[in-house]
Every structure is written in structure tokens, then in C-alpha cells.
Write a structure and sequence with these properties.
The complex is a heterodimer of chains A (114) and B (113). With 114 residues, chain A is an all-beta fold. In chain A, 0% of the residues lie in helices and 50% in strands. Chain A has no helices and eleven strands. In chain A, strands 2, 4, 5, 6, 9, 10 and 11 form a seven-stranded mixed β-sheet that branches. Chain B has 113 residues and is mostly beta strands. Helices cover 0% and strands 46% of the residues of chain B. Chain B contains no helices and nine strands. Classes of the chains: A mainly beta (114), B mainly beta (113).
Chain lengths: 114, 113
């Protein structure tokens, strides 16, 4: 059983650019969530995808968007990058089952916006 | 999700039990208590969850008070590798649709040699 993987590990962008982050869910999981973690803070929920559709969104602007593919892998896209977007971006997968849904996190992508 | 309150930091001697408290006085009847931890530069890791009964697994024990307003995560024999930020989360489980985790600031546990 493979765990959640994310790519790239690190990247550096400049303000105004666009970025795409990728996540492969744990085998058998059909739900993926994305979180943003600024330095020294807990992760903040961005959005969640279930069956290739957005299934909940946190307090993030529309320039944060995502996709989930038939194989349950996922992308997070951020347009018009701002300095405050510098953070660790975490992907978490889970399997929707009656009454229980533990989330498994990947190692994250460290994004630096200059 | 109910608000949770945790101490900012705690120390524990290696080999001793680490007892991490969490207050969730406004928890509702359908909300579980979840614990996750995050070792530096890694993604959060699920530890344990419970509703009202005490729970134990290979990683830890969870003690929930009878009124469910607080809980304690117990690491029975802390090791240096248990140094991490520990998050206590109150969350309802919805069937048919997973829900997000609402993380607070957590407790930085430092296990000392």
C-alpha cells in the first residue's frame, strides 16, 4: 500500500506567477483535501474533492483552484501568486465510509513566493 | 466543529508518560475528538479518535471525561521521536461525505533525553 505522495517537494516562484502542485492519493482513497500551512501555524483547509467535484471549500479566494482525476490524483492551482501564499501545502486523502474518515497526509510542498 | 484549547508547549522526559490535555467544553454529542501530530517538516499524522469511551491503540491512549468537555492524550513511554506538535480536533463524522479538519495551534511536545 503506497502512501500519499506530493510533488514537487520545494519550489520557488515570483509574485504574479501561477503554480500547480500535485498529489497522488493513498491506494483505495476517493477523497482528497488540500491544506495551506503558514510558518508557525496549524494547517488551514483550502478545499476538498470527492468524485472529481469540489466538495467543500475554506476561506480561500477563487485564484486557488483544484482538480481531481479519475485515478483520484489531484492538482492544486494557484494563480497570481502573492507573497502571503508562501507556505507548506499539504494534501490529504481519505476514503468516505459510513461513520469514519481518517485523513492521511502527504509530506507537503514548500512554496516560496519572492 | 467545536473549539479546542491546548497548552502551547509541554516537556516530557524520555521514557516517561506524556499527558497532553485538551479542552473542548462546547463539544456537541455527535462530535468526535481526534488527535493528530506533526513532526517537524512532515505532514500531520493521525493518532487516535474517540467519542465518549476511552480508546487505546498501538500509538497512544485517549481518555475522555464523562461530560466530554475535556480529554487527555497519553503517550505511555515517550521517545525522542515523539517530539512534535500535537493537535486536538473536535469533529463530527458525516456519512457520505468527508469533512475538513480544523486545526488550531496545537501543543509543541518536546521529549527531553
Amino acid at each position: 500500500e503506497t502512501g500519499v505522495t506530493q510533488s514537487p517537494t520545494h519550489l520557488i516562484k515570483t509574485r504574479g506567477q501561477q503554480v500547480t502542485l500535485r498529489c497522488s492519493s493513498q491506494s483505495g482513497h476517493n477523497t482528497v483535501s488540500w491544506y495551506q500551512q503558514a510558518l508557525g501555524q496549524g494547517p488551514q483547509f483550502i478545499f476538498q474533492y470527492y468524485r472529481e467535484e469540489e466538495n467543500g471549500r475554506g476561506n480561500f479566494p477563487p485564484r486557488f483552484s483544484g482538480l481531481q482525476f479519475p485515478n483520484y490524483s489531484s492538482e492544486l492551482n494557484v494563480n497570481a501568486l502573492e507573497l502571503d501564499d508562501s507556505a507548506l501545502y499539504l494534501c490529504a486523502s481519505s476514503h468516505v465510509a459510513q461513520g469514519y474518515n481518517e485523513q492521511f497526509f502527504g509530506p507537503g510542498t514548500r512554496l516560496t513566493v519572492l | 466543529d467545536a473549539k479546542t484549547t491546548q497548552p502551547t508547549s509541554m516537556d516530557c522526559a524520555e521514557g516517561r508518560a506524556a499527558n497532553l490535555p485538551c479542552n473542548h467544553s462546547t463539544i456537541s454529542g455527535n462530535e468526535y475528538v481526534y488527535w493528530y501530530r506533526q513532526i517537524h517538516s512532515q505532514g500531520p499524522q493521525y493518532i487516535i479518535h474517540g467519542l465518549k469511551n476511552n480508546e487505546t491503540n498501538e500509538m497512544a491512549s485517549l481518555i475522555i471525561t464523562e461530560d466530554r468537555k475535556s480529554s487527555t492524550l497519553i503517550l505511555p513511554h515517550a521517545t525522542l521521536r515523539d517530539t512534535a506538535v500535537y493537535y486536538c480536533i473536535a469533529r463530527a463524522i458525516s456519512s457520505g461525505s468527508a469533512r475538513q479538519l480544523t486545526f488550531g495551534s496545537g501543543t509543541q511536545l518536546t521529549v527531553l533525553p
